[in-house]
Amino acid sequence: MFKCGLIEQETVAKRFQDALALFVGRKRRFSNETLGEGSGIKPRTIKAYCEGANTPGLHSFLSLAAVMPVAWTNSILSLAGLRAEPIGEGEGDAPTVMCSVTKFAARLAEMLADGRIDHMERAALPAMLRSLAEQLLAWAKQLEDEGT
């Protein structure tokens, strides 16, 4: 058993800020906007997290962890001697996948409401499509495995 005592708020805030700096910002994997699109957190709130002005609550952390690479999640969880691992491929289910498809379709409809996809919306699309494709492929694999 890992014993670490009370984990100080300042320690968590610093680790969170450092972990975000590796993945969010100019010339990084995510912009505040694309991370906001994927997590449902406002870009200005993500900016505050990146600047260390705010630290997310558990619900926001989990929303970010669902979008960010596992290495990011692990860098934060390691403070408690824990690590995350992604749910294995093939563990998708129909309701979850359909919810994702519906959310994607709704977001795409919002983007197209003015008759075009602007540069900000276009920047968010690849990550959204990749996430959806991964879920669809996992579900397909599960269905294939069940059929054999």
Q: CATH topology of the largest domain, anyone?
A: 434 Repressor (Amino-terminal Domain)
Q: Which class best fits the helix and strand makeup?
A: mainly alpha
Mean pLDDT across all residues, rounded? 86
> Largest sheet, if any?
none
| Top CATH class of the largest domain | Mainly Alpha
DSSP strand (E) fraction?
Answer: under 5%
The rough form would be described as flat
N-to-C SSE series? HHHHHHH
CA gyration radius, whole angstroms: 17 Å
Distance between the termini: 40 Å
Number of helices: 7
Task: Please state the second-level CATH architecture of the largest domain.
Answer: Orthogonal Bundle
Low-pLDDT runs of 5+ residues are none
* Number of domain units: 2
How many runs of DSSP E, i.e. beta strands?
0
> In which range does the helix fraction lie?
55-70%
